[in-house]
């Protein structure tokens, strides 16, 4: 039995570290913040042992900047933070999107706004993760509900970042990050690891403009001899700044469309007992666990309740939601915020289905009993 | 362009976007001459710049170049250097870029003594945005945001870098180009954090508002107000008022971060054990 096939008791943040290392992480920069700190603490010891670099930077802005810098040289780079730090990282996140630099940002959400409650669970960064940086931009946000899933989704986050040349946000909540569960990690060989597209031409002769038609262009890395230019200014297909409207229009359209709307289904949302359900509980992250329990309790009482658990939050898995709405299901969205994702469900349902909410921001998990109570109210 | 430096430029990106009389081109020339003198492999030179007039220099240079966000050039450079230590990293910043929004990153890069060569184009003003006061605008000088003259004291950036732990610090002016090139050569050869401040003229946004005359007058002002560090050591504070002290201002030795990190990796791999 290898260390991988033995069940291990592991915290969500620890599983994130294991997943990142399995995905090929070799650069981490971060700044201490509850409830994400265990990720940095663990990597401080693990990364140099693996030949990688761990850096504690002077703040979160420096952290995301160093991560992007490292990725420009070809490193697989990550940072981890919580809401207040994630707010500071919006500047760098936008740069990473605009310059198309793969990297992973882990945001272990806590109650906000501002300092809020550092140790209390919340899911209030759903919209910040989507729209926190300025300007229209594509984004991929994925959210795990269990420790085992933290591991697999961390690997997926790197793979998606590399495949699409974009920052990917792993949006956790304090419950999943600090919860301990027994997990069996897959053998490293069983994982599919994706690496960014690289130029196939020899050094010195790479012109990204030759790939102008491709949504995701090969990325020449610093030090490899291609002598490329990278900028956060609007730029043309060669990477150099331009403000010509016809060029900016083409490039910004490509940037915003390179992650297709169907990417919400890359990791399909989990649908449980939805076929015969009248009411579909819709929840993600730690809240989905309480919703699952509530669904079982409801079923025991003869109520036809199902569960829809989005794994990719952004892009919204619209096909699954629209399908349920068209089938006449009613949605009960449960989240530790005041309806940030519920409004997305309403948008996609587009009047075809009733959307109810159970929204609370108190620093406590929403319990199965509360959800069951709300199910009875709307049933 | 001089043939010995032409090979370092992306000539198709020229002419540059700077105003007539701007000192940035002179400073860029000084940098490229230093890179030529150092004999560096073009494929192993990385230019990292912030935001502002000076930052646009990156796009003109034929190396790997990254034009980052405002104030963060040193933080990006820290990631680049640690991830790929064999790269020769030059960091180009403006005075507002480096000393205001980027001030925190500056002192920490200096504290870490990471092997970067920082070049600060100090034109005493935010030029790109039209002439606002920066932390390097001399006290009493006018700017759009200080119409009657700034009330604040200005930073001595070299003293700040030295105090924060930089192991090589120097200052030149756009007039003293050979000194500038020499300092950049020394800065790059210093295995650690080096900062070279260069006083350069912004006739458009600073000189005009402060009645400094034509660009040539501003260069003459630099010549007349610069005092070499060796001479300055024998002058009192009264004599040094309104003077710019130029030359290699500070040199020290300290462990360099990327070297220490590579050693740590080596030790952990050989020694194994204690972090298992």
From TrEMBL, chain A:
Ranges for domain Pyruvate:ferredoxin oxidoreductase core: 277-371
Pfam families, A to Z: PFOR_II, POR_N
Occurrences of domain Pyruvate flavodoxin/ferredoxin oxidoreductase pyrimidine binding (ranges): 18-249
Protein name (Swiss-Prot/TrEMBL): 2-oxoglutarate ferredoxin oxidoreductase subunit alpha
Superkingdom of the organism of origin: Bacteria
Keyword tags: Oxidoreductase
Database matches in NCBIfam families: PRK08659.1
GO molecular function per UniProt: oxidoreductase activity
From TrEMBL, chain B:
InterPro entries referenced in this protein's UniProt entry, alphabetically: 2-oxoacid:Fd_oxidoreductase, THDP-binding, TPP_enzyme_TPP-bd
PANTHER family: 2-OXOGLUTARATE OXIDOREDUCTASE SUBUNIT KORB-RELATED (PTHR48084), 2-OXOGLUTARATE SYNTHASE SUBUNIT KORB (PTHR48084:SF1)
Alphabetical list of Gene3D superfamilies matching this protein: 3.40.50.970
Protein name: 2-oxoglutarate ferredoxin oxidoreductase subunit beta
Keyword Oxidoreductase part of the UniProt annotation: yes
Assigned keywords, A-Z: Oxidoreductase
Chain ranges of the Thiamine pyrophosphate enzyme TPP-binding domain: 51-198
A single MF term (Gene Ontology): oxidoreductase activity, acting on the aldehyde or oxo group of donors, iron-sulfur protein as acceptor
Signal peptide: none
Biological process annotations from GO: cellular respiration
